[in-house]
Design a protein that fits this description.
InterPro entries: CetA-like. Keywords: Signal. This is Blastomyces yeast-phase-specific protein. This protein is mainly β. It has one domain. The protein has one helix and 13 strands; from the N terminus they run E-E-E-E-E-E-E-E-H-E-E-E-E-E. The longest helix is centred in the middle third of the chain and has 4 residues. The protein is globular and about 35 Å long.
Length: 149
């Protein structure tokens, strides 16, 4: 999985190498699925959480936003349909929060490592946006929050 933070301050892409790509481009967050199978995405928080089926080669996007009361957004990517509703299903999270002209972001997983064995990366061509890399799809066990200025 690879996430990229392109040249604009409010720009970033999440890629899951040979898995989905999640793009947060200027003003939009998008996921492109490069897996050979469908993946499922939920953007939370939301007043009516909905799951999106992203077919192999498909794409999903939304406007960049903050959640209620300024909380951040988690784009949750599942290998299992209905993962958000089922609960306790491994999810790869790309979290972001808008803060003026900055984007705070991190990579995390919950209920296991859904893309273990794959490389998971957040990267950017913009020097002010530090990268995050999980070489085997498994996180470091501690928060690794970055900011793109």
């Amino acid at each position: 999985m690879q996430f990229q933070l392109p040249k604009s301050v409010l720009t970033s892409i999440l890629l899951i190498s040979s898995l989905p790509i999640l793009t947060v481009a200027t003003g939009r967050a998008a996921v492109r699925n490069y897996c050979k199978y469908n993946v499922y995405l939920a953007s939370v928080p939301s007043s009516t959480p909905r799951e999106y089926n992203i077919a192999s080669g498909g794409q999903w996007s939304e406007e960049f936003r903050n959640g209620p009361n300024g909380v951040g957004i988690a784009l949750k990517v599942y290998k299992v349909q209905g993962g958000l509703q089922i609960g306790q299903v491994p999810a790869q999270n790309f979290g972001y929060t808008l803060d003026g002209g900055r984007v705070w972001y991190d990579l995390s997983s919950v209920w296991g490592e859904p893309f273990a064995g794959e490389t998971v990366t957040i990267e950017s061509s913009e020097a002010s946006c530090p990268s995050v890399s999980w070489d085997n799809g498994v996180g470091p066990g501690k928060p690794d929050v970055k900011v793109c200025k």
